[in-house]
Every structure is written in C-alpha cells, then in structure tokens.
Amino acid sequence: MSQDLLKEKALAYHNKDGVPGKVSVVPSKPCQTAEDLSLAYTPGVAKPVLEIAENPEDAYKYTSKGNLVAVISNGTAILGLGDRGALASKPVMEGKGVLFKRFADIDVFDIEIDETDPKKLIEIIKKISVTFGGINLEDIKGPECFEIERTLIEELDIPVFHDDQHGTAIIATAGLMNACEVANKKMEDIKVVVNGAGAAGISCARMFINAGVKRENMVLCDSRGVIRRSRMESLSLEKREFAIDTDMETLADALKGADAFIGLSVADVVTAEMLLSMNRDPIVFAMSNPNPEISYELAMATRNDVIMATGRSDYPNQINNVLGFPFIFRGAMDVRSRIISEGMKMAAAKALAALTKEPVPASVAKAYGGKKFTFGREYIVPKPFDPRVIEWEAVAVAKAACEEGLAASPITDWDAYRESLKKRMAHWWA
C-alpha cells in the first residue's frame, strides 16, 4: 500500500461516519428508570462511597478500578516519529485502548500529559493512580523512561508496565526461543547482536540473558557502533551495563559469526554482505517500523537459511506487542498483583513460545485470508487473532504471580479461570 493511500485510509478510519477517534465510554449498568438513576447516582451512590471510605479494598468490588488501565504518554517518543508532543500521542494511546478491550476485555482511559520533566511526570502519575488497577506507560523517550517506570513500580501498589521496553522484549524472547529450536541451536550457545540501545533494545538484551543467552555472547550497538568500555564516559547508565572489552567497532564487525541479529534501530543498516557474514541459519529480527533494518526481500534473496521476523504484518513472524500487554495485564489484574515481575514476564514469553507449537485452529487461518500456519521458519510466534492466546498467556502470568507470592487475590481453580476467560471473550470471536 502506498503512503498516500495509507494516509487516506487511516485518516478516514479515524473519522469514520463523522465520529472522531477510536474509543468511547459506555455504562456497564442499566440507567433506564427513575430507580436506576437513584442507584447509579444520588442518593444511592453515597452507599459505596461510605463503604470504600471505610475499606479502600472495596473499590475493587464497587467500582471499575480492577478492570481499568491508564495508558499514559507525554509524546516524547511516538512510534518511530520522535517527540511530537503529548496531544499528538493521543491517536496511539486510543489505539492501545482499542487493543486492551478487543483482546483482553480491559477498559482504558488514555491520558496524555504535557510534561517532559521526569520527576514532575512521576508525581502527576502518582496522584492520579488511585483511579486505576494498572498503568501502561507508552511512547516516553529514554533514558527518562527507565527512571519513570522504576520509581512508579517502587512507589505504587498497582502494576506499572512500560510496553515499549517489556512488550517488545517478551515477544522477541518467545520468538528467539522458537527460532533457536527451528535452527537446532541452544540459547546458551548463540551469539546475539542487538542494534539499537534504547528502551526496547536494553530490555530485550536483559530478557535474552534471563532466558539463557550468556552475557559474554551479547553485543549491543548504538548509532556510534559497538558499545565498548572505551566509550564508558559517554554512555548512559543503562548502556554501561552492556559495555564490553572488544576490538569490534562497527555493526558489521559485530555481525561476523553472529547467530542472531535483533534490530530496534533504523531502516537499511544491515547489508547483504553483513547477512552473509553471519553463522548458519541466521536469526534476523529486523523490527524497525515501517521499514526494517534489512528488507525481507533482500534477506530472502541473500540467504535461503535465514529465519526472519519483522515488526510488520505483511511479512511472516510479526513481533507485535499486542501479543503481550493485554494478556499480561489481564493475568496480573485478575490476581491483584502489585507488580509485573520478571518471572511473570518470562512466563508470558514461555507461554507464547509453547502455544506456537500447538496445532493452529481454522479460525486463525480464516482471519488471515485462509493461510495455514505450522511451527517452523515462517511461524515462530502466535498470531494476534488466535483466540487461545488469552487462556495461555493470562493464565501463565497469573500463575507466576501466585507462585511468587505477589497475588492479593490468588486463584486456586485454574480450569475455572481459564473457562472464565474463554467465556469473557466469546462475543469477540463469534
């Protein structure tokens, strides 16, 4: 699709039938009679007010708090468009709201905050957090995003999740696990090169190590090349974590003999020559959007043994964050976990990796134009329109929270929980 046509269709979609935007608020209780009105508002509303004032936990019983997520941005790193301001981030935040609702039946208020000072932003979010059961941070530039998320996790009693960091890392980790299996390689043996040392790149590197990649086999690159100890004085705190002693200077140097390339940077930085220098069955996750670090066509024409993923939906193996955040919040909020722990994130990645190996139902093929999917080089992560993702991933996340002692409302009957999720989402898949 040409950029002109995409613009035309996207703008028409966002103002379809003269209705601006993508989300609305609808009541969950009837308000059709005088009695309904008296219960919904005055005088009846005073009763839950008093109950909550006496016992704040009752907010989860009498309000929407337990199913309400704040999607928050200051617009300093919108998609790949950069700092476009808080207001310009609103279409993206509304979009996240659509995905939360569509894939996990979670309600969202999108909140755009015109503030770039991280400490002030933290204070604003803290003051409004009482309204919500969880907070999804989005499109906030690094390195400030690390401080913002870290502080909020420490100081709030609800899950806080920066999707640009962890969502990408969780899906990429699931894909890397499966790609290694397809290539008959072990996580602990592979050399991994991550190009792009922003929020997503740093988080991916950390999670890959947690999944088994050896730190000594991990190379991070930024726009200046390999992150080396000789550059230490100019590196951010997060980059220093991955600085290595090496003679390698460029991305081309790093890719020689590498097993996996993880791109979270800019288009067309990987050449055919670089790809040819990689190890057998190279794993290439070129996730720059809309144009990857090496085009799918060039990669396939260069090597027939490449296992490739992108951030795009028009090629195999899309690394799509929608496979993560709705289901992670669903599981975390259903057991009232205070945080989304590293163990919960890894449980999500492993659940996605395992689901990919299961037979794919016909409904998924139908959603993708009749295309059939089987675990292998062109299918290493599930599709977003697989209705089973919620019952695999949300359950795995909730279980991990319970096992780690993080759940304020632990689940004991997992079969019943799984069935409740299927019932909850049934109308979306009808």
What does this structure look like?
The structure is a single chain. The chain is an alpha/beta fold and 430 residues long. It has three domains: 20-163, Malic enzyme, N-terminal domain (Rossmann fold); 166-310, NAD(P)-binding Rossmann-like Domain (Rossmann fold); 321-429, NAD(P)-binding Rossmann-like Domain (Rossmann fold, 3-Layer(aba) Sandwich). The chain is built from 18 helices and ten strands. It has helices at residues 3-13, 34-40, 46-54, 59-62, 90-104, 118-128, 144-155, 163-182, 199-210, 237-240, 251-255, 272-276, 296-302, 325-334, 342-356, 362-367, 389-403, 414-429; strands at 68-73, 107-112, 134-137, 160-162, 192-195, 218-222, 225-226, 260-263, 283-286, 307-310. A six-stranded mixed beta sheet has the order 7-6-5-8-9-10. Strands 2-1-3-4 form a four-stranded parallel beta sheet, with helices on both faces. Strand 8, helix 12 (272-276) and strand 9 form a beta-alpha-beta unit. Helix 6 packs parallel to helix 7 (144-155), helix 8 crosses helix 9 and helix 8 packs across helix 15. The mean pLDDT is 93.
Shape: globular
Instruction: Report the end-to-end length measured between terminal Cα atoms.
Output: 29 Å
Percent in strands: 5-15%
Number of helices: 18
| Topology as a string of helices (H) and strands (E) | HHHHEHEHEHEHEHEEHHEHEHEHHHHH
Q: Which range best describes the helical content: under 10%, 10-25%, 25-40%, 40-55%, 55-70% or over 70%?
A: 40-55%
Would you identify the CATH H-level superfamily of the largest domain?
NAD(P)-binding Rossmann-like Domain
Please indicate the count of domains: 3
CATH-level-2 architecture of the largest domain: 3-Layer(aba) Sandwich
Q: Based on the structure, what is the oligomeric state of the protein chains?
A: single chain
CATH fold-level assignment of the largest domain: Rossmann fold
Structural class: alpha/beta
Q: State the major sheet.
A: 6 strands, mixed
Unreliable residue runs: none
Strand segment tally: 10
Average the pLDDT over all residues and give the rounded result.
93
Q: Please state how the strands of the largest beta sheet are arranged side by side.
A: 7-6-5-8-9-10
